[in-house]
Amino acid sequence: MKINNTSLRIFIFFTFIFTLSIDADEDLSENPSKQFPVAQDEKQLVITLSKSSKIVLMKIPAGTFTMGSPKKNIESTPWEQPVHDVSITRDFFMGKFEITNNQFRQFKINHHSGKAEGDLDSNNQPAVEISWESAIQFCQWLSKRTGRQVRLPTEVEWEYACRAGTQTRFFTTDIVKGIQHAPQLFKACWYGSNSKGITHPVGKLLPNSFGLFDTHGNASEWCMDWFDENYYKSSPIKDPLGPQNGQARVLRGGSYFYYLHHQCRSAYRYSFRPDKSNSTTGFRIVIDSKKAPIHPDANYKVNKKIILKYILPIYSDKEKNVLKSFGGPVMTIKLPTQKIIIDGILDNKEWENAKTYQMRFSNGRSSMPELSTTVNVLSSKTHIYVAFECMENEMSRLTIKGKKRDGRIWAGDSVDIFLDPFHKEKIDGYFHISLNPDGLSLDTSNGDKSWNPKLKSSIKKMKDRWTIEISIPIADLNISPDKIPTIWGVNFTRFRPELHAGKPKRGTLVPHAWPVDRPDLMRLSEDSAWAPTNSDSYHLPEQFGHAIFTVGSIKTPTPKRIFELVSKEDFSSGNRGAFSAGEIIDGGFAGAGKSLLIKPGQVARYGKSFNDLQKLEVLVFAKAKNHSQIYWHSFGEIYGNNKMCWSQVDTLTRDEVRLPPLYTYNDGSGRIEATAEGIADPYHAGYTKHLSWFSEATMGRVHFAGPKHFAVLRSRFGNMQTQHPHNKRIQPNKDKLKGVFIHSSSKNQEIVIGGIVIFRGKDIEPPEKVTGINLSISENQFNLNWLPSKDNTWTIWYRIVEKLANGKVKVLKECPEIRTSLLLQSFQNKIVYIQGIDYFENISVLSDPIKLQPKK
Questions:
Q1: Distance CA 172, CA 168 (A)
Q2: Dihedral angle of Cα 248, 254, 259, 262, to the nearest 10 degrees
Q3: N or C: which end of the chain has fewer CB within 10 A?
């Protein structure tokens, strides 16, 4: 398939939504034309945003200072050297405080700084979760509103203003004790040792002699400059502006989150990608006091970004039948219309009979991978042809692993092909081929590396992608041309490895959290797949998708069942069912029914034993009070009393998710925090989807269940591991588990269980039609409530829709409970319907119509 230079492709088989980020020219404030008055005298400049909000900037006089950190200081880093003299030739005004949430919301109304150990979102706390690009947009917006050149400080201006005439580590002192304590720093800086894990209202500690507050802590602050670790070696003496280009922008100052005093020093340099933010990144602004040259990046254009969101495939009637009988997703693999030349060039004519399939995160994340990966598949009676297109914005950083065939190909950038032609759905019953960007392959049959099919492959590397074509002889799969099965289990995957995630040089066991040394080089790994396995492994044949081979002639037997309900408890009977402890109370999941109260100190065991674990999964609905964690685990027979914990847990939560800054290293688990404490993405109906993996920080724990709402927990029994010693994987076809154990992490806290479902296979059946709908009208809104929609597993959320002329539906509102309100002014005279959606995103048929008509 011939590709042009844009990454925007038209996909035949999928529908996508394109969400555009805010452009620098787009004003997000309530009154785009409003001008802000500016008052200036010899000491300060004041911008009045509103009656309750003013930005005060202090005059910083021109001068010369010594920049950097001497080698003799043990905490000094190479990119803070050499120490050198720099002159600032013009006075400038610099923000007395970091920009606050209240001030930033004048520009971006709905900005939220989020949660840490507490709230970061009050009006006078510094605005965090701000990217460099967002900070620049704020400055450009404020420039238009004031007629002044508002910008971020240069790195030189920032250090000069922070030092305020001092040459010590901090403007307060040069005295430090150990790695965490500096006696005088507490008076001027919020950092890990005194912040209690949250930002604080600006201006509550001591200012420096220039009158600036919080330069050493509270929020880390963006500067204009690109980051270059060697820049100090060639920096100009007068008014340096930093490198002309780079991959990361400079961050200065410590933050509330990190404990080490060396990260709060005046000379401390850090960096971060300009399009990224985390819970520590904020900024303060600068305005030149005299007419000065416009900074080269003052009018930096923030490009619009296209974010692909997977919705649902559109299936043919034949594919729908396969979906119902075998499970999904489903693809059709057709005959090529002409000879496929294996040259790595995806030519339109060769592949015109192949549909293009997009990949999602294999582990079940609700967002899409950063970069697109697509696969095309065709098959004759003699060969299967596969083409991958892997978009890549860092081609120079492709990681090649494996020096020969059957080496550790999978540890670096790679694509994988999984084929289960006889639909065995067994760990030892499929073919696996992995290829890297150098064309080396790892190929196994039933896990045996001695299988070496006569593959033919070709790779092309371009500026922004790499492509691969491969042909696989069907005879090497032990299949003759006249006996090709009609339905195969298949999957196609891509792995982008984690980069530059090594342990920070000053890492130690206390405290646990450390910023990585070079976040500009850091990249999290991405596992993507056509058929997500919802696990930390691709090698789950029961989770493969299914392919219809048009050249197939041998009918594939239909599985006896693709879904089996093993056990379910919703407490509707008024007793606790198979739970060993607890008290039945009113108030269940989604605002209906009953639940089970587990009192402090109680451990609730569900079920006596479970075996045949490979396909066994569990959904639990639970909440804990006062943010206490929930522990859930089991015990197997093979490893005796070793506690068994899940290697991946998916949590849908409506309460706040409090995660550490993105590129932080967790020394206790020896991992980046994103893999130690998990990753969270927005989901539907007000839920956040949090994925966590077996690690020191998460084993056996559920962090974000409650305190207000039930969370939905999901995991697979077949991927459990022992807690001590670590990483002893369960033997799913041999072991037997002694039930599911659930209790609070605190002896003084209660937890509530809203239900549990244990099942095998894939739930492809939608919830039942929503019934029992009641409509009432209050002063200015319609109030709707309905009965819970029954489902194979559980209906998780609902949506209010209206029909469109083309037969499709438009989603008006998503609801996590069996009730909602709609504004009368916006919805009157509409005819709407309600649909239930289960955990696996099966959608019920439309309810009976509801006419939203006000009373006469």
A1: 8
A2: 90
A3: C
- φ, ψ dihedrals at 787, nearest 5°: -80, 150
pLDDT along the chain (856 residues), means of 10: 30 30 45 82 93 94 95 87 95 97 93 79 94 96 94 97 94 79 86 91 96 96 96 94 92 90 90 90 92 87 70 85 93 94 89 93 91 95 97 93 91 96 89 96 92 96 96 96 96 94 66 78 92 92 95 93 93 94 94 92 91 92 84 86 88 87 80 87 92 85 89 93 80 89 87 95 94 93 95 96 92 95 91 96 95 82
Nearest to 299 by CA among 20, 21, 98, 25: 25
pTM of the model: 0.88
Give the whole-angstrom CA distance, residue 9 versus residue 346: 14
Q: Where in the chain is the domain with CATH 2.60.120?
A: 563-761
What CA–CA distance (Å, rounded) separates 551 from 485?
9
- The yes or no reply on domain 313-549 and CATH 3.90.930.1 is no
CA dihedral 133, 134, 135, 140 (to 10 degrees): 90
Report the distance separating Cα 196 and Cα 26, nearest Å. Answer: 37
* Residues recorded for the chain: 856
**460: enclosing H helix or E strand:** strand 456-461
C-alpha to C-alpha distance for 221 and 281, rounded to whole angstroms: 6
Half-sphere exposure of 396 (CA within 13 A, CB side): 1
Separation between Cα atoms, residue 443 and residue 714, nearest integer Å:
32
DSSP conformational letter for 420: E
Angstrom distance (rounded) from CA 758 to CA 509: 39
Strands 92-95 and 150-151: unpaired
Q: Where in the chain is the domain with CATH 2.60.40.10?
A: 774-851
Q: Which two tokens stand for residue 445?
A: 């049959």
Q: Where in the chain is the domain with CATH 3.90.1580.10?
A: 38-288
b/e per residue, 304-332, with b = 16+ CB within 10 A? Answer: eeeebebeebebeeebeebbeebbbbbbb
- The Cα 220–Cα 582 span in angstroms is 47
Long-range Cβ pairs for the range 781-784 (8 Å, 24+) = 781/821, 781/822, 781/823, 781/824, 782/821, 782/822, 782/823, 782/824, 782/827, 782/828, 782/852, 783/819, 783/820, 783/821, 784/819, 784/820, 784/821, 784/822, 784/834, 784/850
CATH architecture of 774-851: Sandwich (2.60)
**Calculated CA dihedral for residues 845, 846, 848, 851, nearest 10 degrees:** 180
Cis peptide before 453 (omega within 30 of 0): no
* CA atoms of 71 and 85, how far apart (whole Å): 16
CATH fold for domain 563-761: Jelly Rolls (2.60.120)
Residues 6+ apart with CB under 8 A from 457: 342, 435, 439, 441, 468, 469, 470, 471
How many of the other CB atoms lie within 10 Å of CB of 386?
24
Residue type for 366, please?
A: S
Phi and psi dihedrals of 590, rounded to 5?
A: 65, 20
Q: If one looks up domain 38-288 in CATH, what number appears?
A: 3.90.1580.10
Q: Would residue 233 be called left, alpha or beta, if left means φ above 0 and alpha means ψ between -120 and 50 degrees?
A: alpha
Q: How many other C-beta atoms can be found within 10 angstroms of the C-beta atom of residue 242?
A: 22
Distance CA 108, CA 102 (A): 10
Task: State the Cα–Cα distance between residues 655 and 653, nearest whole angstrom.
Answer: 6
